[in-house]
Fold each of these.
Amino acid sequence: MPRTPAVAPKRSLPKPTSARLALVFGDQLDLDAALIRSLGPDDTVLMMEVASESRHVPSHAQRTLLFLSAMRHFAAELVRRKVRVSYVALDATENTGAFETEIARAITVVNPSQIVCTHPGEWRVLAMLERVRDATGIPLCILPDDHFLTTSDEFGTWASNRAALTMEFFYREQRRKTGYLMEGTGKSAKPAGGEWNFDKENRLPFGKQGPSPRPRPPLSFKPDETTRAALAAVARVLPDLPGAVDSFAWPVTRKQALAALDDFITHRLARFGPFEDAMWSSEPTLYHSTLSSSLNLKLLNPRECCEQAIAAYRAGKAPLQSVEAFVRQIIGWREFIRGVYWLEGPAYADRNGLDRHGELPSFYWTADTDMACMKVCVGQVLDTGFGHHIQRLMVTGNFALISGVHPRAVSDWYLGMFVDGVDWVTLPNALGMVMHADRRAGAGKGVTGLVGTKPYAASGKYIERMSNYCTACRYDPAERTGPSACPVTVFYWDFLIRTREPMAHNQRMTMILKNVDRMTPQAQAQITLDADLLRRKLGITAEPRG
């Protein structure tokens, strides 16, 4: 067990020096950050590899390795720039295993006049920093994270007095602010192509023939000596982390991340838009970018990603529908999700708007299931720490939603099991978008979420239409009762039956719920019975019915 000495009390500290203790966390690896630019010759940068960050939720071995390797490469670059760095390796004998105690230990050495850091990406870490400040009396300076296009205050101003936080309206303001994909200037500027988004054109399945031409796999990066050393440390200190590590090939440096961006723009962006919602069992990444981990670690800047994509459109190398979809994910959805996270506060994580209490099925950790869609998508996560957004939302997330899993169990799984997992992005996506659990108190009748205006629930027929998963499955996605009924379809109809009353006031659910009303009471009872039996079989505990 890690040692956890108390933070040094105020009276035990000697008179501070003029040096500052600058904290750099693993998701803040931006060499151009305001914090890095502000460093003086007497300042010390503290970087910490602590076991608790891979244990507060079970962290995929590749996620842990990615953070550690990227941090070590970043620290080495700081040293090359003559920055004083105090680096705590995961397997160092004196490592106490937690941020709070490592900062306390560094304070006794540096005796700083101030602790300074970039705004963290998690409420939990912010609370830890405030505890250190209060216990030591050392001033804490938190600099804005200028990686993002919108500050928390700006988002709060936008969100104030709005009955609903609709991402589309936020996205349009982002387009106007940045000028991205806009024609003309000032108030007369219009969106390129005359439309703000092209979602209606971007929901194509592949059909029986599959993706054609076959997508070029993302650029991979062979582990270097630094990465291999980090892997050895993980194997010694955290041998029981879930997930495979042998396939690790993620970018861990700024140079590698830029190469990955160029690879996406050159080889996959053009076909990304039309097929961004499609899935294919033999193609784990398809035309997706796989850049989210580099963005979330700050190895890439969102502006350069958008500008390179837009340059490809202007040069005739990528269609507008693909470029707009990519830009929207970055300046629209990514910024919106972060805004929601900091707007709603730390209690946001405890919301459970649909009152679900089931446990996460064990196959989320093993992929040991006879459901082909879940076997492919969970297996892919275990193998690589990656799944593209439609696999997350409409397969692994959809199943958790409709089967009745507790939303916190789902958000913790997404945080720990994906290499791009950082709390500010994972929690609102999982809790709000996937689980439809983030309804605000006093929001009126019905169940309308903050992030999503309707639950993204679907039957096995959706998965059959958008993938080839069902062709190799023993279950029939068209069947909702009986031994060959697809569990996704069974749970989908059970979900609609269970939530019929609270969803009655959600206008986006009106047409769907009419299908429930057409069922006989006997048919509804059989679905409910089959779903309850299936829950017990899968280890999902019973829950209150809506």
Amino acid sequence: MAGESPAKRFILVGLDGVGMESMLHMVEAGYMPNVGRLIERGVHREMWGVLPTLTPPGWTTLVTGAWPGTHQVMDFNIRALGKPLDQTVWGINTRLCKAEYLWNTVERGGREPVLVKYEMSWPPTISRGVQVEGTGPGISNHAQIAGYHLFAVGREEEQAAASTDSAAVDPSALRESQRFEPITLSEVSGTGWNNLPESAREPLEAELVIRPLHRSHHSMSRSGSGVPKSYYALIYATGGEGYDRVRITRSRDGADCLFEQDLRAGEWTGYVRDSFRIGDSDIAGHVRMKCIKLTPDAERFELFVPQIWPLDGFTYPNAVAGELLEHVGPFLQNPGRDALGVIDDDTYFELVEHHLGKLADTAIHLCSTRPDWGGLFTQTHVPDYANHFFMADADAVSGQPAERVERCFQGMARSYAACDRWIGRLCDALLDDHTVICIVADHGGTPTSYPLVEVADVLEQTGFLVYTEDGNGGRVVDWTRTTAAPVGNVNIYVNLKGREPTGIVEPEDYEQVRRDIIHALNGYLEPDAGYCPFVFALRREDAEVANLWGELVGDVVYATLPEFNGAHGPQLPSARLGWGSQHTCFVMAGAGIKEGVHLQQQVRQVDVAPTLAYVTGLPRPRDAEGGVVAEALTDPDWYL
């Protein structure tokens, strides 16, 4: 006769981009006391992840228990079979997944799942329970009305970013030349203003144009064109020391205020609901602003508008959005990752705290009001935002000046500390004697010592990839002369005749071309380092050693050393550099879990879903290839 399961429900907490070694470093340094207590009362282990070390395959593997070769969510950009090699399928889409999700296993077990911004979970696949958002990092979402706007006077340069990770690895950041909105201040006299506030100096005005769909991901933004909407900044002086207030209005009327309060430098407004035109629809959303800078002479002025998020359309069922608005307040999906390096660090971390507070409030409300919840899935991308902006220079191994290393390390530390406070709130509210909590990551993050190595550049230098001018001053691939090209992060495809629409390589030459590619990668020396940046280059049929198989896998699969490739991506799941690593974090504590144990046996991402199902008495996820982490359990044979 089966026994009673050790736990009744679980909390799965995702920390994007957190390696176990990095987490322990932050715990030991005192930045993660809540996680430190969970480690003391539970188990932990460096966890083996997937290749490429990326968001889509990592988070999908964790909640299916299946390797990428089985679930087929391989990358952000996945091979489009039968299409030209430069056409890919966008990977943030549950419809691509061929394995059962753990939240659907929870449903099969007769319980309700609760999903709160667990990435790679949209469109929803649940039929009971609730879900809030769940697309991708930063600007990679379907719902936002507009990305951030930074209106600036007297600003000539950007803050320097600390890394240049490619869009293939980090689609959450924008690649645009103008990352703020230059505006001009002018005197209000003769412009038709009414109801001006008392001012010791002539008030100044600037038009603030909000552009719906601005700074949205090209593959995921709403359909239609955004219609610009204007507000006005009215700057005035309350005393003789110069300009010190800004009022935001809907028109040139000082009484037509958008917000209740006028702002001084460093202050935020509250949220205000307004409507924005996209295509043929008016979409309501919430607007909030911060006056980052206002000098007494008004020669420097910066007003920041974070992501404008809608009232609904991002939950399942849709009515849940209204429930959250009533009990939690407006949601914030992106805490300004794409504005890092444009806004100051303090403003960014204010947004991070706000974002994580919303995630905690949402999860606590939904679980507290749904007694039949069996699993909470919640995730934040904040640590990986730090990876892409701060991590490259956060360790002395980067060779950067000490002050830059310190600034970047503090960016990492503040990110981890904020996540720790979020986890602490979840534990205080939801972790009881019948619940198990598991903290995991999709990949880790490492600093960088040398210039980034792009495999496309290597293939071009060795003659496999050939470009031609496109007539507009740019370059496009010349498929009549290209024998191989990269797709996504770790895959190289032969331009094979009969398989590719542009194919030029004869089938009888296929093996020789692959051998030549592998030889070229293995023989390539990075000029600054003087040694090869590639760990391996494998034929497709040999890539199963990296848990990759099937037609979506490249003809050649490669991996790189961490010092050449930024935070993560083509690095092996075991890579380490400085205090960073690609080993993903695994911490488990609560009902049925041993206390204070550093597990000795290997833990893999495919083991997480089967273990959570087993310890809570749920069915085994249908397509899971992993096993139960028996070493973690106080009674591994509880079912007997």
Amino acid sequence: MFRRILKWTLRILALLVIALAIFLINLIWFRPWSLNLFYEKVFAQVLFEEPELLSSLGLVERFGITGHNGKLGDVSPAHQQRYFDRARKNLEDLHAYPLEKQNPSQQLSTHILEWYMSREIEGEKYQFHNYPVNQLFGVQNEFPSFMANTHRLLAPRDCEYYQQRLNAVGTKFDQLLESLKLREQKGILPPRFVVEKVLVEMNNFVTQPPPENILATSFKTRTAKIDGMPDEQRATFQKKIETAITDRVYPAYHKLIDYFTALLPKTTTEDGAWKLPDGDAFYAYALRKSTTTTLKPEEVHDLGLREVARIEAEMRTLLDTNGYAGRPIGEAMDALRKDPRFLFSNDDKGRADALAEYTRLIDDAIERCRLLFATVPKAKIEVQRVPVFKEATAPGAYYNGASMDRTRPGTFYANLRDMNELPKWGMRTLAYHEGVPGHHWQIATAQELKGLPQFRKLIPFTAYQEGWALYTEWLAKEAGWYDGDPFGDLGRLQAELFRAVRLVVDTGIHSKRWPREQAITYMREKTGMGEKEVTAEIERYIVNPGQACAYKVGMLKIQELRKRAQAELGTKFDQRQFHDVVLKNGALPLEILEEQVVAYIQKTK
């Protein structure tokens, strides 16, 4: 009897193993039977081939999957091509699921995924039209920043992974050099200023004694917080890290330095995308992808000019009533920027005071948001200084999202390189944009959505994400957060003017062939922003064509949709419901966002 039961038990187990094997083979190598599984397959394919992204998200560590934390992403041309080949296959598979058999949530997911993959595939012919080593977000400066701020250090195993990643830098940089040389063969070279800046940055990086390098100092600071690790083990790890910096990291950087030193004489001062092969068509594509609209470069340029004029008129009124009547706007804002009333001391105390003020503004905004939003995300946010090694070329501020397991909060990074660039009247708007209710609120809300495919929580659409952050600056004004603070409101308007100016200078550089100096002069004259800050901004637009146009285009679309909902719903309009409609589908192309808002209006009617 026992043998018979054992025999049948083994048969059942064998059948289960076979069924599981068939399921996994179908899931991995073929089109899954289930559309929901297909969504997750597409997401997992990308994620598990990008170990640094997987570490950043913190999705799988809770299940004991940690091996990716010892690896670096593949940046070779072959890996890049595999991405496009897979995207074409996935789009073909997506079309095989009958749309009429999908529920409304699936139809929206399919619509979003189809839009995204189609734009990606459209860009295959331009896949080398970029500069993977640049002064802002290049492989060479993202790596130390990632290791210092994102690579998790919670246990001894994480320390081993840290060392493995340092040891893998040579391979990654060899792949990078292969892709750079391929671009060179195609006539795709960065502007001269980019090469000059990255050479200064990399040379400064490798001249530091290894114990003083951010890779070593951040490791030491963070491992000191690991509970239960013996001091002897901590010291042993520290020695291994410093050795890896000397033996693996610095030689990899020196190879990159040698390449760019030899490349420098071949570069030119031509900055725009127009100089690249088929450059005008590439820039039109970059605008479509970034703005998720069909606006042409000329239309974006004209839109920028109109918005600049409108915002200047509002600023003129505020300046005239607050002691700056008759003074040109740029000149008045420049004077306000230098006014001692609005400056922190340009020292460590001033930097600490600024971080404390940003934290206060965000804490206050979180409380105020309860009146504007039905959904409150759970993820925490903290304020940090931009790492010193990259602050010279970094933007004024940026945001990194929280890990999905909440072991790392969302982080608002403030650039404190020069406190004279940080007038107090501009801080409120920056805190709202980068933190709450801007990027942190939107990204955390998306990450915490239930019942949606993972890609819906993480897919990037710049026009939506940046448009939302800019919309929240205006929303704060509408909600009375600037009441009694006319200079803060001027800061808000200057920030909006800055985004409108971006439409003009980005299209000016890449479509109208403006030299860098002309774009810098225009932005300085219009906004009154500091020269170093403006220069860093213009140089950012040069290495990332079209992206800067997404902000204002996205803001205007969300405002347009809100006005439409208010006009059609009248007293039935509830901004808390409207914000849920905008936020609770995750990031969307603007045309799909409009479809969702129109459906909400019809349903509410």
Amino acid sequence: MKLGTARKTQGWFAQMQPRRRVLRWMGLFSLCLLLTVSCGGGSQTASVSGDPASPVAAENSRITIGTTLKARTVDPADAYEIFPGILLQNLGDRLYTYKPGTTELVPQLATELPKVSEDGLTYTIPLRGDVKFHDGEPFNAEAMAFSLKRFMESGGRPAFLLSDRIETVTASSPTELTIKLKQPFAAFPSVLAFSGATPVSPKAYESGEGKFKPDSFVGTGPYKLSEFSSDTIRLDPNPDYWGEKPANQGVDIQVIASAANLYNTFKTGGLDVAYQTLDPDQIRDLEKNASSGGWQVIEAGSNVINYLVLNQKSKPLDDLKARQAVAAMINRSLLSDRVFQGQATPLYSLLPTGSPDYQPVFEAKYGDGDPEKAKALLSEAGFTEANPLTLEVWYSSGSTVRGLVVNTLKAAVEKQMGGLAVIEPKDVDSSALFDNLGKGTYPSVILDWYPDYFDSDTFIEPFMSCAKGSVSTGCEDGQSQIGGSFYYSDKANQLVEQQRAEEDPAKRKQQFVELQNLLAEDVPYVPLWQNKDYVFAQGQVKGVEIQPSQQFLFSPMQK
């Protein structure tokens, strides 16, 4: 949902907007949370004597967070980057959220999970009646309906998440919301947990094209926004919050100019918490010196996947055997060791490894860098040392990491493939890359993907579905065309639609298994690695963790 840079990198889907974004944060999906906390024995902040409610005590119990990420806006109808998403998670509530420490969807402003009609189109949602907005206005079904309509009508960057799916939203009573969808969508409750689907006070906001309030927020959450500028953001506890109150007296966020400054400020004790974005060498140093430095290292799995797009309309990738050979050539463990030095996880599907639906299908079918299998496939396709498979691999010129990945792959292929395959690294400005991706300009491209909501659908439908095309022509209009693979499969389209309408979790899980097997067989994409997430906290700070849903909640933190 990824504090973060522009969502989805902002990768290609942010631009594919007739239908969906493809590529930010943070939005969601089952993610494996590997939590390793290394607590050192360094000096602790001196305790504050006297009344804990005194101004001195309150100031010392505030949490300071440093980040290099920026917040363009905190208007939920327009916020579509990682950092604003994290702010909205803490400033607002949603109808549904995730039970702490799990990926279980639970009611928040709703009182129970929605009642769904037999045709899968109508969702009836009972609401809490004891909630007030930060300005004292009552929260009710009318306010929730106003907020969802405003989200769709204002024309903000994430508007399609709801407008593509919702036909109508009405207040059927003061404490009951009724939503009618355009077509069945089993993942819809997860979409309602998206950070921007938070209600805002109808008294403080207008609805209409472009009517945004980028630097203020009036919602229902545990914190109020007291300051919002380019370098400082302050969140104060909401004394009238209906739920569990924050364990701290507020959060002060410093937006720091560079990773070097963030690293140095944290290491010298100027911050309680450092979160995104540090360089790999800085992360490695903080991990190595945690015990002597007296800070904690919190490592978590993330929902950010990185993959190679294979353009099926481009030679030699129009040959299935050639695409399968590329899949067999990829040594993910090599990338993890040499490029990421353990700060990434090998990935063998487009679903993240922590997803309950994840199947390591590429590992099962191709191994992890199997040159003999790759050679056999290339020979079957007619490639020889005199006529090798030559593959251009494009990447954003602004990404040092992707450049290292491509050149590492090139060296490995040259060493292991005996002249049967050649990798040619090609870099291009990211704006040009995304402009040309859907035009078929590039034979292959390395991209990343930040999901919007926590469901396997968001890792499958944007990649494997196509609205118009055929096996012979490829995708002519639709998701896979926008994403640059031009993949078309009647079976994939059918399975995507089936899982979207399926309410039975067991049947839906099996459909995702079939889709992943199809992905490994047809190879329109090759999954590469999954990012890890890191938070660093001083030793005296408690309650710092990234949730399996990738939420970074401020309320539990204290010192």
